[in-house]
Automatic annotation (TrEMBL):
Keyword Cytoplasm tagged: no
Single GO term (MF): diguanylate cyclase activity
Matching SUPFAM superfamilies: Nucleotide cyclase, Periplasmic binding protein-like II, PYP-like sensor domain (PAS domain)
Coiled-coil ranges (or none): 275-323
Database matches in Pfam families: GGDEF (PF00990), PAS_9 (PF13426), SBP_bac_3 (PF00497)
Keyword Plastid in annotation: no
Residues annotated as domain PAC: 396-447
Transmembrane segments: 252-273
Protein name, as recorded: PAS domain S-box/diguanylate cyclase (GGDEF) domain-containing protein
Ranges where the GGDEF domain occurs: 479-606
UniProtKB keywords: Coiled coil, Membrane, Transmembrane, Transmembrane helix
InterPro entries: Diguanylate_Cyclase, GGDEF_dom, Nucleotide_cyclase, PAS, PAS-assoc_C, PAS-like_dom_sf, Rev_trsase/Diguanyl_cyclase, Solute-binding_3/MltF_N
């Protein structure tokens, strides 16, 4: 008894000493995740940690090391916590991991601008710059393993930071570089290099520590981080958006705007000078006309002056014709389709791009003098847009998909402008730009923004938006709404025993069962990690429990054919009109944990 009490007091003293002294937190250079700027620690991880530590009243200090030295410091108890470390079995022998990941990332191969890389086989006998002890380099699915499996004979060159890795690629010391996706996409332009299509495994990024007495502090940090992730408006997402989702102006915009500005400025100066010249000459002609009436003797002199002026006008006309030719050449060689029509929709001018699109998309030829009403007969929307520009005398832009005769679809941005002649309406100008690639990128970005990459379900943000819409519909239609919260049982055990790839497979299998067990009018989304949530519209608690039974039966059926035991805990809460969705979700979460604890007690008794 005395021995046990002695050990208890020793543990209490160790925890007290640990908490009393400032925590030593290791950071290394990996912008924008963490870095030093003019002696100040900045980046996603430090700024989120600063916020949480302040809320929790935790005293700490940062030390700046390279990645490999940081791991050694932690292993030898020279530091307490280190940011930005992915899980591997080898590291788990020496370090403890936080439960809540700070972020997720993946590895990517980068090359110089003039190099094209098609696949991993192109790396054979090449040199690659890597970060010492990087998970994308030495991890179970890292490039070193791929090199061994494919017998690529890659010559690896190790560096202490990603900046050194990119610098060696820029200087030509190596053929390629391996770095994290977040660092690469935010830093590559500084080094005049580009990303390739070769990517490596996706990993969650954690805090690690070696002193187990720090677990109470880490649990507090985990809890705060988890709460921040649940709120889309939290400080966590403000920092993420600050560093990762800055809107960037396309690189081609500034040169184009500069060119347009120069041309516009030249035209304005030219028109201004021409106008002054014409006004001056007109005034001279009027004065000379008056002189003719007063004195016929001045006719010869006036004739010579008029002759001189006519020569100047001829020169001016030649310059105008030259300017017109340049403008027509610019229109003809433009990458956009350009079309001018009069008020009857007869073609005044059409360039080759517009002709080719009409011939390819509609199997019709368009030339100067053609009538658009005949060529585009049946294309009522297009003709109405032209009429709108002419009748309303205003410019506007319309983006829309165009279906070709072969069934394929591409996107255009049509800019309509009314044109005038002699101060009166004359017709319409159309500039049509192919924006298919831009639209495809927008669709891809929208998909990445709304769907979870692992399961294909809605991500947390998109799921919460749909849940709020269901809540409004429930209130408006007076229909019941049930919210469910799901937690995968024993996922950590699956990861530890079978590896994280099997853990990911378990999450995907369970996600498929959840999705197949509800109606199309319901929503299932991944909350994060091993947690999901669902919204069941026009559904009672009794109906929801039957859905839970269906899910459990499907899991039991899956377990018959799998050496991994699949199990979930699912709690429900009924939505009450005008209540906060987060509160209902929290209640469902609490009900889920009550069921999980009940199952654990029953299992312990058995």
């Amino acid at each position: 008894m005395k021995k046990e009490m002695f050990l208890f007091f020793i543990i209490i003293i160790m925890v007290t000493i640990t908490i009393a002294r400032p925590l030593t937190v290791v950071i290394y250079s990996a912008p924008p995740v963490m870095y030093i700027d003019n002696g100040k620690v900045k980046g996603i991880f430090p700024e989120i940690f600063d916020y949480i530590a302040k809320k929790e009243g935790i005293d700490y200090k940062y030390i700046y090391l390279n990645f490999a030295d940081g791991l050694e410091y932690l292993k030898n108890d020279l530091a307490d916590i280190m940011f930005g470390v992915a899980y591997t079995k080898e590291r788990a022998k020496y370090f403890e991991y936080s439960r809540e990941p700070l972020l997720f990332d993946w590895g990517q191969i980068f090359s110089r601008e003039n190099v094209t890389l098609h696949g991993f086989m192109d790396l054979k006998n090449k040199s690659v710059a890597v970060l010492k002890k990087d998970v994308y380099y030495e991890g179970p699915q890292g490039l070193k393993k791929i090199d061994s499996d494919l017998n690529l004979n890659i010559k690896f060159k190790e560096y202490n930071s990603y900046e050194e890795v990119f610098k060696s690629l820029e200087d030509g010391e190596v053929d390629y570089a391996l770095a994290s996706r977040i660092f690469g996409l935010n830093t590559r332009k500084k080094y005049d290099i580009k990303e390739t299509q070769l990517i490596l495994n996706t990993v969650d990024i954690y805090m690690i520590y070696s002193n187990k007495s720090l677990k109470p502090i880490i649990d507090r940090l985990d809890l705060r981080l988890k709460e921040l992730k649940r709120n889309d408006e939290s400080y966590y997402y403000k920092i993420i958006n600050k560093y990762l989702y800055k809107k960037q102006i396309p690189t081609w915009i500034l040169p184009v705007l500069l060119l347009i500005g120069i041309i516009t400025f030249i035209l304005i100066i030219f028109i201004y000078l021409m106008r002054r010249n014409i006004e001056k000459k007109t005034k001279e002609l009027l004065e000379r006309n008056k002189e003719l009436e007063k004195n016929k003797k001045k006719v010869e002199k006036l004739y010579n002056t008029l002759k001189h002026n006519m020569e100047e006008l001829q020169n001016t006309k030649g310059k105008l014709e030259e300017s017109q030719a340049l403008l027509e050449s610019f229109i003809e060689h433009s990458i956009d389709g350009i079309l001018f029509v009069n008020k009857n929709f007869d073609v005044i001018l059409v360039n080759n791009v517009f002709k080719e699109r009409t011939r390819t998309d509609f199997h019709k030829n368009i030339t100067k003098g053609s009538n658009l009403r005949k060529i585009f007969e049946g294309e009522l929307l297009f003709l109405l847009e032209l009429e709108k520009a002419y009748n309303e005398e205003r410019s506007f832009v319309i983006e829309k998909p165009i279906k070709r005769r072969d069934g394929s679809i591409y996107w255009v941005s049509n800019s309509y402008y009314p044109i005038y002649k002699g101060g009166e309406k004359y017709g319409v100008a159309l500039i049509s730009r192919d924006i298919t690639k831009l639209k495809e990128n927008e669709i891809l970005l929208e998909k990445l923004a709304h769907y979870d990459s692992l399961t294909g379900l809605y991500n947390r943000r998109a799921g919460m938006e749909i849940l709020k819409e269901l809540a409004l519909l429930s209130k408006r239609e007076n229909k019941p709404l049930v919210i469910g919260f799901v937690d995968v049982d024993n996922l950590k055990t699956i990861n530890d025993v079978y590896g994280h790839s099997k853990g990911d497979e378990a999450i995907k299998n369970i996600a498929n069962i959840l999705k197949s067990s509800v109606r199309h009018s319901d929503v299932v989304a991944r909350y994060g990690g091993d947690e999901f949530f669902m919204g069941l519209y026009n559904c009672t608690i009794e109906d929801a429990e039957r859905i839970r039974d269906t899910i459990n039966k499907k899991l039991e059926h899956l377990n018959k054919y799998s050496y991994i035991h699949y199990s979930i805990s699912l709690g429900f809460a009924r939505y009450i009109p005008n209540s906060d969705i987060d509160e209902i979700l929290l209640k469902a979460d609490q009900n889920m944990y009550s069921l999980k604890n009940m199952k654990k007690k029953l299992k312990d008794k058995s």
